[in-house]
């Protein structure tokens, strides 16, 4: 019931307050439409109790949403209410003045409710100044755009957005763990590529666009008050004119329902813009049913052209947004510069390599047991102190090593045998966790200088075997102290210090 990050933010059974807030917000438009329907009921014994229940339901949803303390949910509700009022105006259900008054009334009502709950406190100037969630989101989104531009077609892999961000983009002194980009669009684009991003964005945009274009097709043409009075003398007695005297609430029930589902689409779009909501299956229920209802309604009214035009418009707008995101990401500068080479990350620093790029490369084979799961962040500390024109590091745990000449090979843990098979003038081996391969150890590439870094505490059980092999082959041996396998307490100093054989 209570969100773990704050004891006063309610979740109402959802995994996070933001999920609960978006769910509550998507229910509000249907209550508003229900109230518009109830106002047309002529039987007072039914009309007023029903209106009272609907208004209490609306207030309860506002209170529940405010209890979540979700700023993204509050913003989604405000945008959805404004879009709902806009659709009512397009359906001729409200005059411009009533349209503005309706939107303002809903915003003020929620504002009053939020003022006395946790949501109001999270919008206070002091909370906004002290809360780093906005700053964190901006950092993640900036890195996400860069990652999208680096791997636009296939993405970085499902579940990799947070991990790769921590490896290559998170500030090295920031220990905070990140699960993703905290934004559905970038989450999909970074992990699955622009084609998946385009498809998702088209789907999300389809509902508000379909409602915006289709609601006029379901509404009767607007008539002036004077023309209606001339054709129906009893009009003035049965209907009160608005202040402008030019518009009537002529929208029918299907049009009002389409306004509701359009508002749901706007809320769903904003909710995904500020949080990763798309991965929650239950949150898809209301938007999916709304989209299905809108399409069935338009097809039933023989408005299939509206569906085709809306789908084309959503696809076009989605394509433009994806192209803009790619261009923005391509122009973002990151230090050090990063490139993607298959399953490998290439770190570009200092002067560009000469014509034979690969022979000037440094390859690093990190082991999570030695540098931790966030080994990329630890390696960047090393790269910041010792620049090299081109360094490649594997993106994933399972990788195939390109067998080509390198300037330097740095290997850790279980990859030390692999390193000895690579042609390079210098090979650095840190904390082996596998048995030395006799064939590889006995025949390293000619002209290779090998340095072995071993802890004083034999944790893996293979240190003694590697020490004997190093003595036999004439390698340099350097002690890393009583560190055990984990080298982070000595990193990157141990890799930067001049190598002198300890034996």
Automatic annotation (TrEMBL):
It is a multi-pass membrane protein. It comes from the Bacteria. One of its GO terms (molecular function) is ligase activity. Residues 226-247 are annotated as: Disordered. InterPro entries: O-antigen_ligase-rel_domated, WaaL-like. GO terms for cellular component: membrane. It is found in: Membrane. Its main location: membrane. Keywords: Ligase, Membrane, Transmembrane, Transmembrane helix. Residues 60-200 form the O-antigen ligase-related domain. The chain crosses the membrane at residues 20-38, 50-66, 72-91, 103-123, 196-215, 255-274, 280-300, 307-326. This is O-antigen ligase family protein. It comes from Puniceicoccus vermicola.
């Amino acid at each position: 019931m209570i969100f773990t990050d704050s004891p006063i933010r309610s979740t109402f059974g959802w995994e996070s307050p933001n999920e609960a807030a978006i769910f509550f917000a998507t229910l509000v438009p249907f209550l508003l439409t229900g109230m518009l329907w109830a106002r047309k009921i002529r039987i007072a014994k039914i009309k007023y109790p029903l209106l009272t229940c609907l208004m209490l339901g609306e207030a309860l949803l506002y209170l529940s949403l405010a209890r979540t303390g979700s700023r993204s949910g509050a913003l989604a509700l405000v945008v959805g209410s404004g879009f709902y009022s806009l659709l009512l105006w397009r359906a001729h259900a409200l005059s411009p003045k009533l349209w503005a008054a309706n939107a303002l009334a809903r915003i003020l009502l929620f504002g009053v409710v939020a003022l006395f709950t946790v949501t109001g406190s999270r919008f206070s100037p002091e909370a906004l100044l002290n809360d780093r969630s906005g700053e964190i989101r901006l950092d993640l989104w900036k890195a996400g755009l860069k990652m999208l531009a680096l791997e636009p077609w296939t993405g970085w892999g499902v579940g990799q957005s947070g991990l790769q961000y921590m490896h290559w983009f998170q500030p090295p002194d920031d220990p905070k763990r990140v699960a993703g980009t905290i934004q559905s669009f970038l989450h999909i684009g970074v992990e699955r590529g622009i084609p998946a991003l385009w498809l998702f964005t088209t789907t999300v945009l389809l509902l508000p666009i379909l409602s915006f274009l289709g609601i006029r097709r379901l509404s009767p043409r607007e008539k002036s008050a004077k023309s209606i009075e001339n054709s129906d003398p009893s009009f003035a007695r049965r209907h009160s004119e608005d202040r402008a005297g030019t518009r009537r609430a002529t929208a029918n029930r299907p049009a009002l329902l389409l306004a509701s589902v359009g508002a749901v689409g706007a809320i769903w779009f904003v909710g995904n813009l500020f949080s990763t909501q798309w991965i929650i299956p239950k949150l898809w229920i209301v938007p999916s049913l709304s989209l299905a209802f809108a399409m069935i309604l338009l097809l039933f009214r023989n408005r299939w052209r509206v569906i085709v035009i809306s789908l084309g418009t959503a696809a076009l707008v989605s394509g433009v947004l994806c192209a803009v995101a790619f261009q923005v990401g391509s122009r973002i500068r990151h230090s050090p510069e990063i490139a993607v080479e298959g399953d490998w990350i290439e770190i570009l620093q200092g002067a560009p390599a000469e014509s034979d790029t690969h022979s000037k490369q440094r390859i690093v084979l990190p082991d999570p047991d030695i540098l931790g799961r966030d080994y990329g962040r630890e390696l960047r500390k090393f790269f910041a102190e010792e620049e090299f024109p081109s360094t490649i590091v594997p993106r994933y745990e399972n990788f195939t090593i390109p067998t080509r000449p390198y300037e330097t090979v740095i290997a850790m843990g279980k990859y030390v045998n692999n390193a000895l098979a690579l042609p390079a003038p210098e090979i650095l081996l840190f904390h082996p966790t596998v048995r030395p391969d006799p064939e590889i150890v006995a025949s390293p590439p000619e002209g290779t200088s090998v340095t072995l870094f071993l802890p004083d505490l034999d944790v893996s059980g293979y240190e003694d075997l590697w020490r004997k092999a190093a003595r036999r082959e004439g390698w340099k041996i350097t002690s890393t102290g009583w560190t055990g396998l984990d080298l982070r307490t000595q990193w990157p100093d141990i890799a930067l210090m001049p190598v002198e054989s300890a034996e």
